[in-house]
């Protein structure tokens, strides 16, 4: 029976959205257990049933303005730190938060710890492929590290491969290296060396360099990047998607009565496009390389997004993804 430690106070709409999403997931997955860390009084006001849910009272919250490492060290009774220690001590199998990203990464590295042999865990995000229905790809690293070495990008290729196989059930997933051109001789010193390392491993289905303009078309299943570049691409995609929907709405509203009538008729199709562009259905970002699943959902997550993130964590636990990582790196590093 698996248990998830949840930072119930992290996020813009906590604890309401967190508790609502957890309860929906609890009803869907009766074998899961949850440890909710936070203000017990506030949590109980929202909770409809404590079945399979344990509330652990905490007195502090790490907010979005806190400096991550300092907050982890000073706010020992915060909901995030207490949840992280529950995983470290073996009381829970995974850590989940919608709160401060830097603090969660720090907690994952400093408290939960990293798998032996992995130099720097990376943050993996799942994004939609717009070229086909139901498609998606993983981006790794999407922001855990500002600087990387070629060996770390090589490890991300392996981590991404095992995640795609174990969690997304993709056989022989296609791995691409984010670059400024598809030719193997293009790129920075970092990407040139990483390209050679990844290409030398025959167990990786390496499709070579990929450009940012093509990744939404589904050219590969996993996109490998350094954390600075990956985060910039992630935010550019999110920003473009949001702006496109706002432009569409503004165009319809400013087109007069006929435009508004046309917009009303097209509303189902527009909503379908919006849902396709939303990454919430794919869950949160995963700190791959930590000793246990450490997962971050967006700060503005609603209950539905929290539910999908718990589903993602459940898939990781059910497929024993961490054991595959650990076995590989223990044998090969």
TrEMBL record:
Pathway linked to the protein: Lipid metabolism; phospholipid metabolism
GO CC annotation terms, alphabetical: cytoplasm
Enzyme kind, highest EC tier: transferase
Main location: cytoplasm
Transmembrane segments: none
A molecular function GO annotation: phosphate:acyl-[acyl carrier protein] acyltransferase activity
Reactions performed catalytically: a fatty acyl-[ACP] + phosphate = an acyl phosphate + holo-[ACP]
InterPro entries, alphabetized: FA_synthesis (IPR003664), Phospholipid_synth_PlsX-like (IPR012281)
Sorted UniProt keywords: Cytoplasm, Lipid biosynthesis, Lipid metabolism, Phospholipid biosynthesis, Phospholipid metabolism, Transferase
Enzyme Commission identifier(s): 2.3.1.274
Pfam family, one: FA_synthesis
Localization of this protein: Cytoplasm
Single GO biological process annotation from the record: phospholipid biosynthetic process
Subunit structure as annotated in this protein's UniProt entry: Homodimer. Probably interacts with PlsY.
Family assignment from sequence similarity: Belongs to the PlsX family.
Family matches, as PANTHER family: FATTY ACID/PHOSPHOLIPID SYNTHESIS PROTEIN PLSX (PTHR30100), PHOSPHATE ACYLTRANSFERASE (PTHR30100:SF1)
Known function: Catalyzes the reversible formation of acyl-phosphate (acyl-PO(4)) from acyl-[acyl-carrier-protein] (acyl-ACP). This enzyme utilizes acyl-ACP as fatty acyl donor, but not acyl-CoA.
NCBIfam families named in the record: plsX
Protein name: Phosphate acyltransferase
Lineage: Bacteria, Bacillati, Bacillota, Bacilli, Lactobacillales
Gene name of the encoded protein: plsX
